[in-house]
Structures are given as C-alpha cells and as structure tokens.
Write a structure and sequence with these properties.
The structure holds two protein chains of two kinds.
Chain A (H helix, E strand, L loop, with lengths): L4 E3 L2 E4 L5 E6 L6 E7 L6 E7 L2 E5 L6 E5 L5 E5 L8 E8 L9 E2 L3 E5 L1
Parallel strand pairs in A: 2-11
Antiparallel strand pairs in A: 1-3, 3-8, 4-5, 4-9, 5-6, 7-8, 9-10, 9-11
Chain B lengths: L3 E4 L2 E5 L4 E7 L6 E7 L6 E7 L4 E4 L2 E6 L4 E6 L8 E7 L8 E2 L3 E6 L1
Parallel strand pairs in B: 2-11
Antiparallel strand pairs in B: 1-3, 3-8, 4-5, 4-9, 6-7, 7-8, 9-10, 9-11
Classes of the chains: A mainly beta, B mainly beta.
C-alpha cells in the first residue's frame, strides 16, 4: 500500500510568488492535515480537512489556504511568499478527523524562498 | 491554548545506556500524547503513544510514562543503539481540537 505522497519534493520560489503543494493520503483515510516545519523546530499546525471541510486552522495568515478534493487529496496554497515561508511542509493523513489516532506523514515538500 | 515544552534540546548518551526525554503540557484537557522520531531529511514517524487513561506503555526498548497530575510525560529508551540517533518530538492533543501541538524536539546522539 502506498503511504502519504506529496509533491513536489523540493521547490525554489522568489518572494511574492505563489506556490501550490499537493498531498495524497493513504487509501481509506479521509482526513488530511498540513504542518509547517522550520529547520530545527517542531511542526506547526496549519490546517486540517476532513470530508472536504476545513475542521481546524492554525495561527497562519490568510496567505495560506487549502482545500480537499472528493478523492480526499489536498492542496496547500501559499500566496505572496515571504522569506520566512521557507520550510518543510508536511502533510499527514488519518482515518478520521478529531480522533486521537495516528497521523501518517508524507516525506514533505521543502520550499525555499529566495 | 496548549503549549508543550520539551527537554533537553540535545542528549548525548553512550551506546547501550538509557536515554530519557521529558515533556510538559499546559492544558489538562489534552488526552493523547504521541512521540515521533525524525531522522535527518525524513518524515516524522510515530514510535509510541499514550492516552490519558494509561500511566505507562512499553514497546520493546521504548516506554512512555504519563503523570496527569503534574502534566508531564517522558520517553525512555533503554539499551540505546546507533540507529536510535535522530530528533525525537513529543506532542499533545485533545479530542475537541484538531491540531497536534508539538514540542521543539530533542536531538539524541548515540556515542559508539
């Protein structure tokens, strides 16, 4: 079985540009969460989607948006990129929404903003 | 909101010795406490978790203890091996909240 897959794995953007990151959850998982991990720190929660609805949002500006598609895959969009947006963006899937079950992470998309 | 503090930030132990990493949380409503291991350049992977109705859980060389009164939980690794070298993160979550709150991480170094 395939795990959580994310694309692209690496990308370089310049300030002011926009980026779209993609995530496919484990088959059967209906919840997708997005986390930002800055080098040397723990992941910070950005969004959670369950059954195509936003169920939680972390303390991130409106430049960050996401959506979940009928097949439960998800996209994270970041507009007007800043240098501080450089980070590893992790997608995690789980079976349900607010349960305390295991999160399964993808390998991440490493974004560098120049 | 919930806040998770993790200590130490770096831990160096001799191969074969034990390692202990400690975390404290602020919100008594948190009821799920996972530990993740992240190797350099890799994804975080769950190594063990504990729920608030349990005080201790073991899985081979790894154990986690939870003290709800003091609001702290710890990861214990016995008979450490070189492949245990990684960054370990603790986290906390409550049923009513969708987000996992993470500690800052502990870099564990196993000296040969």
């Amino acid at each position: 079985d395939a795990g959580v897959t994310q694309s692209p794995t690496h990308l370089i953007k310049t300030r002011g540009q926009q980026v779209t990151l993609r995530c496919s959850p484990i088959s059967g998982h209906k919840s997708v969460s997005w986390y930002q991990q800055v080098l040397g720190q723990g992941p910070q929660f950005i969004f959670q989607y369950y059954e195509k609805e936003e169920r939680g949002r972390g303390n991130f500006p409106d430049r960050f948006s996401a959506r979940q598609f009928p097949n439960y895959s998800s996209e994270l969009n970041v507009n007007a990129l800043l240098l501080g947006d450089s980070a590893l963006y992790l997608c995690a899937s789980s079976l349900r929404g607010s349960d305390t079950g295991e999160l399964f992470f993808g390998e991440g998309s490493r974004l560098t903003v120049l | 909101g919930e806040n998770v503090e993790q200590h130490p930030s770096t831990l160096s132990v001799q191969e074969g010795d034990s390692a202990v990493i400690k975390c404290t949380y602020s919100d008594s409503a948190s009821n799920y406490f996972p530990w993740y291991k992240q190797e350099l350049g890799k994804r975080p992977q769950l190594i063990i978790d504990i729920r608030s109705n349990v005080g201790e859980k073991k899985d081979q060389r790894i154990a986690v203890t939870l003290n709800k009164t003091a609001k702290h939980f710890s990861l214990h690794i016995t008979e450490t091996q070189p492949e245990d070298s990684a960054v370990y993160f603790c986290a906390a979550k409550m049923d009513s909240n969708y987000q996992l709150i993470w500690g800052a991480g502990t870099k564990l170094i196993i000296k040969p």
